[in-house]
Amino acid sequence: MLKTELAAQLRTAFDDDRDADTFLLRLERYGADLVESLRAVYGERTDALLDRLLEVMLHAYHARPADLKRLDEARLLRPDWLQSPEMVGYVAYTDRFAGTLKGVQGRLDYLEGLGVKYLHLMPLLKPREGENDGGYAVQDYRAVRPDLGTMDDLSTLARGLRDRGISLELDLVLNHVAREHEWARKARAGDPRYRAYFHIFPDRSGPDAYEATLPEVFPDFASGNFTWDEAAGEHGEGGWVWTTFNSYQWDLNWSNPDVFLEFVDLILYLANRGVEVFRLDAIAFIWKRLGTDSQNQPEVHHLTRALRAATRIVAPAVAFKAEAIVAPGELIHYLGTRGHHGKVSDLAYHNSLMVQLWSSLASRDTRLFAEALRAFPPKPTNTTWGMYVRCHDDIGWAISDDDAARAGLSGEAHRHFLSDFYSGQFPGTFARGLVFQYNPATGDRRISGSAASLAGLEAALETGDARQMEDAVRRLLLLHTVILGFGGVPLLYMGDELALLNDYAFEDVPEHAPDNRWVHRPRMDWELAERIQQEPDSPAGKVNAGLRHLLRVRRDTPHLHASIESQVLPSPDPRVLLLRRDHPLGVMVQVYNFSEETVMLPAYVLRDVLGDHAQDRLSGSAFSLDRPTVRLEGYRALWLTEAGEPA
């Protein structure tokens, strides 16, 4: 891309030779990725797009604050910053965590004390008024939701976080904008430039052809994928608008290079405000193709690679996280395969890990878990997983029929069992969850609920049974031990460190009542947070103390660097999951008992890997493996390394 004439031309845009050298060196490094992917998507329109794109990038580079330019250089020197064992994320809604952005600023001591290095504030860019899909119907990407503060407040918060070594993540909704967004308003007013930003059809022939192969995301309250709009037609008459999620969320037409250019500009604007990680929301849906489900199309990965390359040139401190809740065979493409290897998103959600955690907890059987992990192809070593026990969303039982069959199960029957178990319908269940989006055509039932309520703490507190409460605490700590030990960025969901229960008051809020996902989006209990360490014997106190201990151990365990992947070891007991990590410092074996029963694990499975002696980093205990068995109490976890390794 960087020919001599172009380099000379670009140098005239800089007053400082050092800035010119920096920009041009990055352009040399990432220019081929940018141009190749743009040509794959836009063909002969690429050259005209590149001229405009360079203008946007140069403007953003000149506007980038000095402290962020310094961060860019630091990140280039430490490209594995997201892979370090000290990297721990925290996910929260601004208003539910601290009221406003200024309120979050006042809670930085709490986050730092917990060991957080990465703060994901859920959608806070200005949404449409009224129903807005939890903030994912954005009306203005350059403004903050008015009740949360201003864009200047966001910049101030980002700077305060950065001073404490905490990176700020925001959601960037790529697939759609609110019907009230300026682009949609201009399209409805008849502006042909902005009508081309969307997929608008004059009659049902086009939508019907696409609908033949499109699934429904929200069958309960947003059936179909197209919405009639009285003013969307070419001459002011009505038209059918593509709306994958809700009628007020208009899908963007990424086959239009103007849409790509708009999003580069938005990403760089927000990066210059201090955003360090972008959660690329609904990224799987951005490219439409007739005769397919219009998800995971090849152009999605070209577009992501091009967005990343443009961002790397201007703001290499920035990372991308793919919000792609798709099958493992598709998911790996969001981290990069073949020509895109390690060149698209830096992180992706390991949704399967989360699903298998809850599956094994209900069944007390890890064989399906092991089969699911074995089915994952290796990821690029410069990328990492985002791992979580719970998040703001429901749990969809994304269990492969093939994985289930290899584990001796029926996929359909097991999904049905999990829905029954976690909605409280299965005999003897400990869980308290709610069914979300029941689809009678497929039998699919997703589940809402907080981690503590799903793990049995709510039920135990209702009965007052001390043993049940202890089991619930141990389940919660086991789940978090797995995500902290798997190797990636563990994401703690706000309130889970306090074992907050389901918040049924969501039903009293009119705009929340139709969507029971709000049951696991409680307000932060700051009174509990302030007294929790004075209540060490309460269930919440035990969860909090246990989690803080796990975080300290993780921080001091180099074996958990995310460039290394966890591999499944064959387990002689179906209740126990065994994971192996091969680090240059030595082998690590993790042992997880997913049942409340004591398991006598044959010691040979550990001895064959670790030798006769090992150290458990979680307890600090030494283990002699030259005996027949190792005793694992209910829900016990071990992080074993070879004896004599650096602690």
Descriptors:
single chain, 647 residues, alpha/beta, eight-stranded parallel barrel, six-stranded antiparallel beta sheet, 24 helices, 25 strands, globular
What do you see in this structure?
Helices cover 38% and strands 18% of the residues. It starts with a helix and ends in a 5-residue tail after the last strand. The chain is an alpha/beta fold and 647 residues long. It has an eight-stranded parallel beta barrel with strand order 1-2-5-11-12-13-14-17. Strands 18-19-20-25-22-23 form a six-stranded antiparallel β-sheet, sandwiched between helices. The chain has a three-stranded antiparallel β-sheet with strand order 7-9-8. The chain is globular and about 75 Å long. β18 and β19 (576-583) form a beta hairpin.
